[in-house]
Amino acid sequence: MNSLHARHRAVLPDWLALYYDRPIEITHGEGRHVWDADGRRYLDFFGGILTTMTAHALPEVTKAIAEQAGRIVHSSTLYLNRPMVELAERIATLSGIPDARVFFTTSGTEANDTALLLATAYRGSNQVLAMRNSYHGRSFSTVGVTGNSAWSPTGLSPLQTLYLHGAVRTRGPFAGLTDERFTEAAVADLEDLLGHTHRTAALLAEPVQGVGGFTSPPDGLYAAFRKVLDRHGVLWISDEVQTGWGRTGDHFWGWQAHAQAGPPDMLTFAKGIGNGMSIGGVVARAEIMNCLDANSISTFGGSPVTMAAGLANLTYLLDHDLQGNARRVGGLLIERIRAAAAGVGLVREVRGRGLMIGIELADPATGRAAPEAASAVLESAREHGLLIGKGGGHDTSALRVAPPLSLTVAEAEEGAAILEQALRSL
Ligand code: PMP
């Protein structure tokens, strides 16, 4: 244990888990690479999830942060705040939600918490629907909608939550069904559930489950859900914390894979929009956003420095068509990873969209999840200079690949080669 690790252990909570047997202290980054305190360079295939949406140390964003910090770092809520208004205008337009209002928070958890506050107030009900295997945060309300005990420190909640099937294809009662049959079964399940409940406020769901191992339902599932939800007046909240801003390649928002449904009533965002700065937020139809009688609910949400970063980052990712890059380079990367995994018995599935690729590991003989193998691949990739992530069901048996959206073809090839080595050493 190096001394910083020992000091971390001594002073921070035991549950502040670190990756790797020998945790890494990252000291700086550039583009798609980061360096540790020993001067080792790593190709970062997880920075996208850990907030670096675009690139490490992107000069346009760094400059915007420095300039705004040099002018004023100030309360975001009591006075007019130009960068906040400008970013809100752009996000409102991009959201696809009619008559959209935007509220900024400092994290995805707080964004979902606010969406739940709004939905429960608007509907006068604290009963909500969430998907099994979901992750929406670890605050008091969001643990209550996180359908994945491995990522939820308690099961206590101020909400009454009902969990739906439909986000996971490899497990559960609908495993193995065709897209059409799967959708029919999941919708019938929802119909049945709502037929037996009292007033329900909302369904909160990730279009592609992030922490859950990058698993997605068949396209159109949420459109089919929407018809049922509408009949019961239940709101649809799309958690775009991982899927927003073009990461899934084909779409700017994850909900657009279900586009027949039109936009959700609310969407939540965070992580990558700030390219590392702490921005989260909720977009909602004005009628829903304005159902609260509050003068504000966040001191730091919308701070001018984070908003300046968000504006610069959003401008960069739109101007450079990073969504298109996610589609092209992500498409190539998933092909390379599928080829790398071919014949590796422990790989049950390689799945994903754009630059959001999951590799699920399971014992081929028993079908049981293989979390130890996932850890072994993570360690081996690190030894060879590649950082990736872990996730997945109750068992953390999926590897997660989510590089910054500016990933180049050469970097995709390099990372896939390291992954191949790591998978074949299993
Ligand atoms: N929603 C989703 C889909 C997430 O992946 C996360 C973070 N992993 C959150 C919400 C919570 O975001 P934060 O960590 O910024 O609070």
From TrEMBL:
<comment type="similarity">
    <text>Belongs to the class-III pyridoxal-phosphate-dependent aminotransferase family.</text>
</comment>
<dbReference type="InterPro" id="IPR015424">
    <property type="entry name" value="PyrdxlP-dep_Trfase"/>
</dbReference>
<dbReference type="InterPro" id="IPR015421">
    <property type="entry name" value="PyrdxlP-dep_Trfase_major"/>
</dbReference>
<dbReference type="InterPro" id="IPR015422">
    <property type="entry name" value="PyrdxlP-dep_Trfase_small"/>
</dbReference>
<keyword id="KW-0663">Pyridoxal phosphate</keyword>
<dbReference type="InterPro" id="IPR005814">
    <property type="entry name" value="Aminotrans_3"/>
</dbReference>
<comment type="subunit">
    <text>Homotetramer.</text>
</comment>
<protein>
    <recommendedName>
        <fullName>alanine--glyoxylate transaminase</fullName>
        <ecNumber>2.6.1.44</ecNumber>
    </recommendedName>
</protein>
<keyword id="KW-0808">Transferase</keyword>
<dbReference type="Pfam" id="PF00202">
    <property type="entry name" value="Aminotran_3"/>
</dbReference>
<dbReference type="GO" id="GO:0030170">
    <property type="term" value="F:pyridoxal phosphate binding"/>
</dbReference>
<dbReference type="GO" id="GO:0008453">
    <property type="term" value="F:alanine-glyoxylate transaminase activity"/>
</dbReference>
<keyword id="KW-0032">Aminotransferase</keyword>
